[in-house]
């Protein structure tokens, strides 16, 4: 194949790719400005953050589509495609690679999927740069005006809704994501790197969600909802379990172990099939191989799949308990409804992947559902806080009485319920 002579890193098209990403980002920036041109600066930043969160979620979904269509190596170098800013300039090289291996990793269709993913990622990076610059400008303006720099500036120049270090950390993280994206290509879909790239996208969503919620609360003048410590711990514990499950799911996907079990609820007709855990969870190794150069066994792939499935039962039980508790406590109703619906969707799409031979739509939705669950749980955590003793009697314990006490009248009405996030 011609791509053997192609350097893994070719920075020649880097400037053109950056300019293209900036051009794509102008669309969302213009939309936010036109829609909110008569609004306050705080409202415009809030709208841009929410829109960036939405576009990042779309990017995670498209990343899943790229991986599931085997398009991750559609262009064998980084950041361009055979040293070009688009597959158009690499038409001859792609055609030669496709002719040599028609079903191989490099085809015209896969090259376009891979490059569109890179264009979208670059545009999201540009939007995060804009958010970071705005946050520091607001912080400096608030300091000059005598404000505290975090939601407490003067009337003439209010400070930002949150510390500028939040978007700065997000910018650093998205740069790290770009590095993992490059390694995904240059290390030929190394499972540990691809899994870290997936995890990085989920963390990026969580970082943006925290900022969107905080800015929405500042724009609407709402406070964080006090909930009982038991419910708060359940919310945090469920989030931790989901994070572990996302890592396991990424390991299943990047090792192509989805079809290691094709029956449900048993696997190969057994509740405890033959599994090789040492092989399945040997982390630093090439795709489909072990460190000693031998191929990973089917029992190793089965171990990867079945551990994810067993963990899914625990996560679904935790989500069901959390939704039940939120409904009984009459807290965060929007988040509770989203969690219930997404949990059902995850079960349905996960089951479809197993019994319907891994359909593309179900596989992409399964990744999207996991990402959405992380966003909703982050939304719930950011919108709430642990209540002070006696502040909310109905949330005082993990398992309240059969007839919960009505919400305390001392709780401000605007803060009881979900923070509605909108752009």
Automatic annotation (TrEMBL):
Per the UniProt entry, what are the Gene Ontology biological process annotations, in alphabetical order?
Answer: heme A biosynthetic process
Record pathway: Porphyrin-containing compound metabolism
Query: What keyword terms does UniProt attach to this protein?
Result: Cell membrane, Disulfide bond, Heme biosynthesis, Iron, Membrane, Metal-binding, Oxidoreductase, Transmembrane, Transmembrane helix
Q: Quote the biased-composition stretches of kind Low complexity, using this chain's numbering.
A: 410-423
Q: Name one Pfam family in it.
A: COX15-CtaA
User: Where does this protein reside within or beyond the cell?
Assistant: Membrane
Domain of life from the UniProt record: Bacteria
Q: Does the keyword Methyltransferase apply?
A: no
Q: Which residues cross the membrane?
A: 14-34, 46-65, 116-136, 165-183, 189-210, 231-252, 306-326, 338-356, 362-381
GO CC aspect terms: membrane
Question: Segment Disordered: which positions?
Answer: 399-423
Q: Which InterPro entries match?
A: COX15/CtaA_fam (IPR003780), COX15/CtaA_HemeA_synthase (IPR050450)
Task: Describe its membrane topology.
Answer: Multi-pass membrane protein
Molecular function terms, GO-annotated: metal ion binding; oxidoreductase activity
Query: What's this protein's name?
Result: Cytochrome c oxidase assembly protein subunit 15
């Amino acid at each position: 194949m011609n791509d053997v002579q192609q350097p893994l890193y070719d920075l020649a098209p880097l400037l053109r790719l950056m300019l293209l990403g900036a051009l794509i980002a102008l669309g969302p920036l213009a939309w936010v400005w036109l829609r909110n041109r008569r609004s306050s600066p705080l409202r415009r930043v809030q709208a841009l953050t929410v829109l960036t969160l939405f576009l990042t979620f779309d990017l995670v979904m498209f990343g899943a589509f790229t991986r599931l269509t085997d398009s991750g190596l559609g262009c064998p170098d980084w950041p361009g495609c055979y040293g070009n800013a688009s597959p158009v300039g690499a038409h001859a090289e792609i055609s030669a690679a496709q002719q040599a291996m028609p079903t191989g990793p490099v085809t015209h269709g896969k090259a376009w999927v891979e490059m569109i993913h890179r264009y979208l990622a670059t545009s999201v990076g540009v939007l995060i740069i804009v958010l970071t610059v705005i946050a520091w400008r607001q912080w400096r303006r608030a300091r000059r005006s005598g404000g505290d720099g975090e939601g407490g500036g003067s009337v003439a120049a209010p400070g930002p809704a949150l510390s500028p270090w939040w978007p700065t950390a997000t910018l650093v993280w998205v740069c790290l994501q770009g590095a993992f994206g490059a390694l995904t290509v240059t290390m030929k879909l190394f499972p540990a790197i691809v899994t870290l790239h997936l995890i990085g996208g989920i963390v990026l969503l969580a970082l943006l969600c925290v900022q969107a919620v905080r800015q929405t609360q500042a724009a609407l003048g709402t406070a964080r909802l006090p909930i009982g410590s038991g419910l708060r711990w359940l919310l945090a514990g469920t989030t931790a379990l989901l994070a572990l499950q996302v890592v396991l799911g990424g390991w299943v996907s990047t090792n192509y172990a989805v079809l290691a079990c094709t029956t449900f609820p048993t696997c190969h007709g057994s509740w405890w099939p033959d599994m090789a855990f040492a092989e399945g969870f040997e982390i630093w190794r090439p795709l489909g191989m072990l460190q000693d150069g031998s191929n990973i066994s089917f029992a190793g792939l089965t171990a990867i799949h079945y551990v994810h499935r067993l963990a899914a039962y625990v996560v679904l039980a935790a989500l069901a308990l959390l939704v039940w508790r939120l409904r009984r406590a009459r807290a965060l109703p929007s988040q509770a409804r989203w969690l219930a619906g997404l949990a059902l969707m995850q079960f349905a799409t996960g089951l479809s992947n197993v019994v319907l031979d891994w359909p593309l739509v179900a596989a992409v939705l399964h990744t999207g559902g996991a990402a959405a669950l992380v966003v909703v749980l982050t939304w719930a955590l950011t919108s709430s806080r642990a209540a002070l003793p006696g502040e909310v009697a109905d949330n005082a314990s993990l398992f309240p009485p059969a007839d919960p006490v009505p919400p305390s009248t001392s709780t401000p009405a605007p803060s009881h319920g979900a923070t509605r996030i909108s752009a």
